[in-house]
Every structure is written in structure tokens, then in C-alpha cells.
């Protein structure tokens, strides 16, 4: 199984130790040369390359019945990479829904974020909340809110709670997610590892206490993958460079998440 590795947290290139993938895994690294200067042109270059890689991978798998899995799996250092993944899936003619596993809502708008951290806006981008930044430059078509399922999101800011209370995004807990509550058609899974309780997964950039266990989350992801409708999966790893035995824990988690 080939993994698409995007070794970045936004436009920052991360050390190889940040992604302890199994030695036997075939890995294609997506790391284009980024332009100098402002952040958004750099991100646009990166996510365009991600979209290109996802589109190529899907077409290659369609032409090769020997592939172990019919979908690309993308491993990266932050949630914004999902913009390129969804754009790449859409280029193939698919109209996917999205299932977003995350400890956070990622639903901020530019004007509601107190930190300005773009990762806290990632799902809002996917749903078309900032077309001037995402759709126009990447060719990303907004996924309608009713085709989005937000799983867990136990750490929400007041502005995110207000937005979700009046919107059409479905919310559920990890142990509640099952195929019959998901929209019809193809699915993209976004799995931010910080959905897992930080006591079990230390070293996260944005830990949120009182989360589900890794086994509970992985079982939920498998339930969705077993539908056969998943066309791409993103494993987002917003964690710091590991210390001590942290890499052993992370390696086991990635291996189980990727499967195959």
C-alpha cells in the first residue's frame, strides 16, 4: 500500500522522525518547492501538489486491481492538508461527503478566531466558508454542510458552538458513528489524531482532555472504511517531534490507522 506523506505543519517542513511509518510501507512524499514570501501562496503551492498527487493516485488505483486498497491514504502534520485532498478527489469526478474526526471543531471564520490559527478553520474551508482563500485558488468545490459529519469535537470555542447550533453539520460522538447515519455516496475520512485522549497519546500540539481511547477511535474509522465507500483518508498528526518512547506509541497508532 502506498502512502502519500505530506511532511508539513502548514508551510513548515517537519523532521522525518515526526512520521514513524513502518519500514515496509511504500511512501510517496509530497514536498514541492514552495515560493518565498507570504503564507497563502506557499500553502496554495503545497495543496495544489497534494491535489495533483491524490488525483494521480486514485486514477492509478482504478487502473490496477492488484492495489491492496482502493483509496489513497494521506499522512500529514496538520488539518489544512484536507483542502488539497478533497480538491484532488473532486477532480476525479467524485462528489464526496466528509467525516471529520477531531477533538476540535475547526469551524472558525477569519473574523471569529482569537488566535488566527488557520488549522482552527480547516473544516470551515472545506465547507466553503472562505471561498476567496480556498475555492478560487485550489479549485475546491464546497462540500454542503449536510454532507459533513463532525465526530467528537469536545473542545469548541463559543463562536464555533454558535455556528454549529444554527448550521446543518451533523455532530456525533465517536462511539455513535455508524454507516447508516452518514450521507450517501463517496466519503472522505479526516482523522486528526488529537481526537484520542492525550493521556494515551502524549506530545500533541493541541491536547484536549477526556477524549476517547485509541481503540475506540480506530474501531469507528474501520466501521466507515468497511462500507467500501471511502475514496480517500487523511491522517493528520499535529504533534511535536517525539521524545523518548513516544515514537513507539505513534508508530503503532499509524500502523493501525493505515491498516492493509
From TrEMBL:
CDD domains reported for this sequence: Arginase-like_1
Domain of life: Bacteria
Keywords carried by this UniProt record: Hydrolase, Manganese, Metal-binding
Signal sequence interval, chain numbering: none
Pfam families: Arginase (PF00491)
InterPro entries, A to Z: Ureohydrolase, Ureohydrolase_dom_sf
Protein family per UniProt: Belongs to the arginase family.
PANTHER family documented for this protein: ARGINASE
Protein name: Arginase family protein
